[in-house]
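Hey, does this match?
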Amino acid sequence: MNRRLEAELEPEAEPETRSASQRAAPNGEYDLVIIGAGLTGLSLACWLLQLAEDGQATLPRVCLLEPRTSYSNDRTWCFWDLDPHPFRDLITHRWFRWQVSRGNQSACQSDANAAYAMLPADVLYRHALARIEDTLAFDLHLGVTVSGVEHTDDGVLVSADQRRWQAKAVIDTRPPGKGQLTSGVGFWQVFSGLEIACPKHGFDTSTATLMDFQPGYPHPCFLYLLPLDEDHFLIEWTAFQPEKEPAPDYRSDLDSWLQRQELGYYEVTREESGSLPMLRMPNVQNSGRVIRAGVGAGWMRAATGYHFVSCQRGSAALARQILAAHASGDWMLQGPSVRAGWLDWMDSVFLRALKRHPDKAPQWFVKLFAATSAAQMSRFMNDQPRWRDALAVASALPPGPFMRAALPW
């Protein structure tokens, strides 16, 4: 971990003490409690602030409860930069060209109007935490693991340890446990990544490598390479791991690949790793005073693992409902839809076909990017395809395996 960065991100004082002593609502009562202050919780808070400023609306009293005790640069969000959101000015890198490859076969796309964008976690965290700190209507409590959420006669009671927070509504952004996930179709996207300083590394700084498939594995494995400038790059080893198998540590595979590149001297400046569920999320009752949001609500795209854009779309929709509820006094909310149902169906068919034919993944992905345009793929990957985009994607894939995967048995 980068200790200097961790120190920069760590709050100057314990947020729990500062919030409780200086700004806490009387008797722990709030209009809204947001459980979780990761990407979804912080995005919702920033959308509330932005929409209230744009519409000159009154902010509700909001409490955010987050189990971590400090923030660090623990991940990177990437997406196609097509739509406005509260963090757009914070994007650090953009690539207008991207590619997918296997061996000596490669499919490249480029679009001057649709950049593949990168937003480091520390940049987003710092911005969002500063906005929350400057807003008297918001309280952030770190080091709080919620243990109970129960309905009351006039709202919702949230509990953690010996503490209680009363709210008119709750947005629950906690991810589901592995036992809650629907098995049968899908993978775990397991990745191990390094940010590296390497003078004159030689990678093409104009191109983001989304997938460079590696041979010799029983399930799809690929490298993800983002050249940040001539002397720095982000590299990740990613595997689509079958659900029931224990996830191995791919760091040694990544180190071996780096050694084969003969880069000379390089220094690892940051590490990240994780496991994303490319699985169907559990069905939840998502209306009323307690609303699920984020990964647990199915906002992350199952077939890709992309989450940032759908998170902004869902957070914006929820923020509009919350501001309207605060103005009207009617706190019965609805869980937003972040993508069309037929797109989720397409993803389930794709994952089922991929699980039956994991050896075909490199061929299918290269063909998919070769047979579609950059504009079509950027819209499709951002969950907002036109019908012609979806048709182009479907036409690029072999009909036999996917027609069989679409059957109900």
Summary: The two ends are 47 Å apart (CA to CA). The chain has three domains: 3-74+119-176+281-334, 180-278, 341-406.
